[in-house]
Amino acid sequence: MRRVVIVGGGLAGIAAALECARAGAAVTLLEARGRLGGAAYSFARNGMVADNGQHVFLRCCTAYRSLLDEIGAGDRVVLQPRLSIPVLAPGGRRAWLRRSGMPAPLHLAGALARYPFLGLRQRISMARAMGALRAIDPDDPSADARSFGEWLSEHGQGQEAVEVLWELIARPTLNLLAADASLAQAAYVFQEGLLANAAAGDVGYARAPLGEIHDVAARAALARAGVEVRLRSGAASIVSDPAGFRIEINAAPAVGGDAVILAVPHERAARLLPTRAGIERGRLAALGTSPIVNLHVVYDRRVLDVPFAAGVRSPAQWVFDRTESARVSDGQYLAVSLSAADAELDMTVDELRARFLPALAELLPVAPQARVETFFVTREHAATFRAGPGVRALRPGPRTALAGLVLAGAWTDTGWPATMEGAVRSGRTAAREALAWLARLPESKVAVAV
Fold first, then answer.
1. Of 68, 211, 212, 223, which is the most exposed, with the fewest CB atoms less than 10 Å away?
2. Fold assignment, 56-61+290-383
3. What angle do CA 89, 91, 92 make, to 5 degrees?
4. Whole-structure pTM over 0.85, yes or no?
């Protein structure tokens, strides 16, 4: 039986393992940590189950949604029947970005026409810019070489419009400010999520802790598929020889395989890739990283009356009610997600508390009367690659120069930004590449597990 070894147990590795097992390969999945799920995981803190950060998906994230069904976790998420985003501003002002039953792009026309945080001329200018963005080819290298912020300025979008509308969508999906982001990547996000299909942007999120989905449910599905999962088995090196591949593991026997799918973050991939793979380390390093900081706040009473909300004219970007999923019985647990959080990354917990609790009080009228029971911070220093101008050309495809060694991860060239959807798509693409290689191998070349 053909043997595939997958290095990395994040969403890309899970998707690749299931795809290979379904095709009849013997699959071993190696994960350095004691859990699966990669960058989307849960942990215990102060008697509750907290996620490391808030992860959302859209209706257009078809690969991720199908993975949820495949691992039996489709009932542990919520997907809006129709896009509806409450937008909060200081002073308790609230607007809604809702789609109508009209076809795209008219489905957003009513909400944008009534958007109170922009004047009439700004709204008209914004509508024209949306139309122009539809015409951008995300695969055009010249569009990728340009800054989204520069393009917005050329199309009459001032700083106010950027902050209260454009970055409302672009910042959390690209994990960059508009000025730092690639125009091509931003165009892809808006086209795929909002402008091409009316239902594409409906928002989904987990109703259970992420660990129950990406670890517990995923491990059960992998076991049913016959995948051997080895936790706390970090790969130290990948060696290619005439018999196949040998993956050296820290403080454990090596594992042999006919094909290897390397599904780890790009910084780690650069250290593990053999020279013969033909991927320069400097190329992967140039993908860079962008941080995400999450604030976890438990109040003694309910202060947010919707499942989630976006903040404008406020440092609090997106706020989510995680009370039920965290098993908090008294009060309300809010997760505040801060993307492109370079400034917040270096702030102390006390500094973050001093800045963001007053900001939440300005957005949520009930918050000033509530008592903060718990406040803590999680930081993902290298949450995503930096989808800046010119970076698309640096993202490798699944193939390497070493036949049988394949790459997976949201940082590979999926077309998507660094999202759960991109990770799953990359894993499935890598699996198909690995399986195609195995199909070409003569029987005499089948490796034996070490």
1. 223
2. Polyamine Oxidase; Chain A, domain 2 (3.90.660)
3. 70
4. yes
